[in-house]
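1st attempt posting a full record on here, be nice pls
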Amino acid sequence: MEVTRIRALRGPNLWSRYTAIEAVVTCDAAERDLDSTPEFEKRLRALFPKVGALHANKPSTPISMAHALELTTLALQAQAGCPVTFSRTTPTEIEGTFQVAVQYTEEAVGRLAFEKAQALCRAAAAGEPFDVAAVLAELHELDEDERLGPSTGAIVDAALQRGIPIKRLTRGSLVQFGWGSRQRRIQAAEVDGTSAIAESIAQDKDLTKKLLHSAGVPVPLGRPVGDLEDAWAAVQEIGLPVVVKPQDGNQGKGVTVGITDREHFDIAYAEAARYGAVMVERYLPGHDFRLLVVGNQLVAAARRDPPLVIGDGQRTVRELVAEVNTDPRRGAGHGTSLTRIRIDAIAEARLAAQSLTPDSVPAPGQRVILRNNANLSTGGTATDVTDSVHPQVAARAIEAAQTVGLDICGVDVVCETVIKPLEEQNGGIVEVNAAPGLRMHVSPSFGKGRDVGKAVIDLMYPDGGNGRIPVIAVTGTNGKTTTVRLTAHLLKAQGLRVGMTNTDGVYVNGRQIDSGDCSGPRSARNVLAHPDVDAAVLETARGGLLREGLAFDQCDVAIVTNLGGGDHLGLNYITTLEDLKVLKRVIVLNVAPTGTAVLNAADPAVVAMAQHCPGSVTFFAQDGHHPVIATHMAQGKRVVFVDRGDIVCVEGAFMKRLPLARVPLTRKGQIGFQVENCMASVAAAWATNVSWEAIQKGLSSFISDLHGVPGRFNVFDYAGATVIADYGHNPDAIAALVAGVENMPAKRRSVVISGAGDRRDEDIRGQTRILGSAFDDVILYQDACQRGRADGEVLALLREGLQGATRARHVEEIHGEFIAIDRALDQLKAGDLCLILIDQVEEALAHIQRRVDEAARVAPPKPAARKATAKTARKPRLSKIAATVELGLRA
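the predicted structure (as tokens):
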């Protein structure tokens, strides 16, 4: 078994909506059907019983070593505590080669599980031992390190319940909620609106106490101290018992409470001094309560009890602690609801105060306290008391939080009970904490868990929003980039700041922030993370989808322009049109339930995607009588088609006409494929509630030049000849271009073309086969990069495609793109037309523009054109289908 090309699919992908590890696995002849070696499964299940019976996705498929690897990887993660359920193994067209996909929740854990599963399968095949227990412990430990802690996790879970997209910005607890201009951030239980000044105040215990005291909030007496003797002097002023703690601390570190003698005091001072300046306070008798304030509300309260064990007359304190620490809820850090109890110097001092040592055997039923402070981080427990808090106690907690200035605040109260006001029982507020731990409220040791994460989300999104901006994903074989640019332009006309990715770069509000082919998920994530983006339009190419999956969990609009083989087959095991359809429909599968799929009704493969859309569907096609359009319209659903020179948008009794004469991109409707791009863009803008005024304005102002849509049917006037530059590079694109230029008059037609070496031979031949029937002169040139082909190989395939050409009479081969362009331009005369299929888009367009500018400088001035006479426009005659809709409107 050989494993190659391991990838992490970080978003919805070809296999599922889950994040997954994907790998290519090659098995030898004996490994392709494990039924021939039944001993392997017996040995594997003996080593790892939880793997269960081996099986394939389809009952008729032989079980291979790849299937064993898939199931073992999934089972290892599940047994390590990861909530994973999905896996799949799919054979490729290469015999013995499989694609394996296994869900993960933490990428590092998924990768390690895949690695250990390989070793386990090899050990089972060789009959060797394997320590599964050690691997599971390693995976569990890594998962605890990687996954979010309980405080951050509670807020993230609440965000997901609200439908808010999340993105971890670090391996720690810094998390982004939402996209673009609606994004927010948290770090643990702090939000991006938390005041840094308030946090600094909360860390200074003495300043906090002074502010609270001046606001009339009850606090214990005390002061900062300079050294041990000054600290003992403070004790004499205050009186025993006292509390010793760091002046700037958190999580109960260095805090000792209930100190009654000098020996215990000296130990406590040394522990507190480890964390900086020390503070001494009067000890308030009673229970330790934590009140959680979010915004201006008390959302949870818990009584915290110190770590303790109950004697049984047989075991030592140390043994009893070890027994308590076996509770699966107790862990070493903050990843679990409870923390293991430690026996350290403070614990030994507290035991000494009870005339005990760690090796003492307490009497049956004796309560042995290991610490006076009750923080969960030092082994304490929590009991929910939210429903018992007196309104005046809640008011004092809220007042304390607001005095310090914290929007999320943990207020520590010491009193006998929270059912009476603090002033009636000599209780007080002993600390105010920024970034409070939430686990005691989410998963208390006793009592009801509270949804404190929801309270934080309500604070961040008070209007009930989900942090999302409109996301429009565009895929297909041809027309993607133009559709992306035009759609973004329509949204901009609405006044939105638009982020856009395509094969030319990344753009935010009209400014290019990255260049190159940026149609993958990494560029899309950059747009979604940009704070100045109100809407995102993302070209979604098959390469990025295969490499990483989608950059988003769901989109508002999914546009599929068309589907053809061309340059998209034969790569990454996508070998048939059906494979391509399954891949491209991923964006349709991940449309939001309230979203829309915009689908080409004239393409059966695209139409078939409609049944997989969770939201609504808008069909578009030039032919308003197309059966798919007619049926959808009869059902009262949205359609976009062309009628009498207008783009017509219909839904039920509603109809809107947009004259193509006012859409420069289509050259008054002459360029069919640009008309289709316009219809798709209009449907997307309609789905995102762009006004019709903005749509018409955007269509009228969008120009197909080298600045607006570089390399997409850019038209130049070269000394009276028409020159068209386009990046079309597959047979479907070539056919669409030919159909477009045939509507444009010309005395003689010429074409300049090369071919990409990473395309199939038949696709390269197919391009010139089409062109040879539409152009008089053909100039073939060789790309700068042959993409794996031998020198001259692509040119030979292009020439083969011209065999039997019905029109091409003159064929010329030239090495070098710019030399070929110059040769074609030099041969042009006024009235001719030349189509140049460019490879190096920016450089080639700049070269053509220079030649055009040079020709304009030497050309004689044109005579002034006569002023056109205005004529009364005749109302276009309606087709039967449009007339029917208008009759319905009148009715």
